[in-house]
Amino acid sequence: MSEPILKVENLNRYFGALHATRNVSFEIMEGEVRAIIGPNGAGKSTLMDLITNRTVPSSGKVLFRGDDITGLSPDKIVHKGMTKCFQISKLFTSLTVYENVQIARIEMNKKTFSLFPVHDRYLKEEVKRYLSLVGLESKMNEVAAYLSYGDQRRLDIAIALAMDPKLLILDEPAAGVAREEAYTLMQLIRKLAEERNMTIIFIEHDMDIVFNYADVISVLRDGELIASGTPEEIKENQYVQEAYLGG
Ligand code: ADP
Ligand code: MG
């Protein structure tokens, strides 16, 4: 039996009078691929920001790998094994693919091996390993700005993987890429989850992708979690039918 890696308990967040997250509670099992769906403004991104503590909850708790991480700095949360994929806008576009991952890895190693600086050759092997996981090893000397959008997404994922996450959070990983590339990216994400026993949470609008790649789907509406279930269960949900599947 797998354990819940993440537990969210009665989370609330107000922005002034706006109740953006309404008493949300759920659990995610280790190794699970969870999709979060809901219309624009439903509170999906806010919920992810609360889980990673980029936004402070008005009330409620986040438990990760058995520890209460509510209020822990985003930096410490990364070191506990939870990484939210950086947006592409965070890439160092004038640096190479290799250098982008190297920076992330140096930051990680600094905190892990602060007394013993990591040997250059070891670092190089590490960086190459992360790049090969996403299929970018052959492009490691290319400047990030000149990559295709899909490859920038891959680089984004390689940087996140360089943080050695147990839980990886992706906000619309397939947004803006062609359908075929979106499927390739999602296959890569699923494969990483399976091979590395990584848990994934992804926000996604494309229902084909959601129904094909999620183990469990959670539906947010007006800040409230209105349903969670397998793709088969969620397909039967009345709200999902009306909002997404044309009644
Ligand atoms: P989603 O990601 O589902 O589209 P968001 O989580 O971005 O939704 O937003 C949920 C609601 O909270 C929206 O009404 C949005 O305008 C509001 N909101 C999000 N962030 C802030 C903020 N920093 N200040 C004020 N309102 C915000
Ligand atoms: Mg959003």
TrEMBL record:
Molecular function, one GO term: L-phenylalanine transmembrane transporter activity
Any one Gene Ontology cellular component term annotated for this protein: plasma membrane
One BP term from GO: D-alanine transmembrane transport
Alphabetical UniProt keywords: ATP-binding, Nucleotide-binding, Transport
Source domain of life: Bacteria
Pfam families: ABC_tran, BCA_ABC_TP_C
Presence of the UniProt keyword ATP-binding in the record: yes
Residue stretches in coiled coil: none
Protein name listed in UniProt: Amino acid/amide ABC transporter ATP-binding protein 1 (HAAT family)
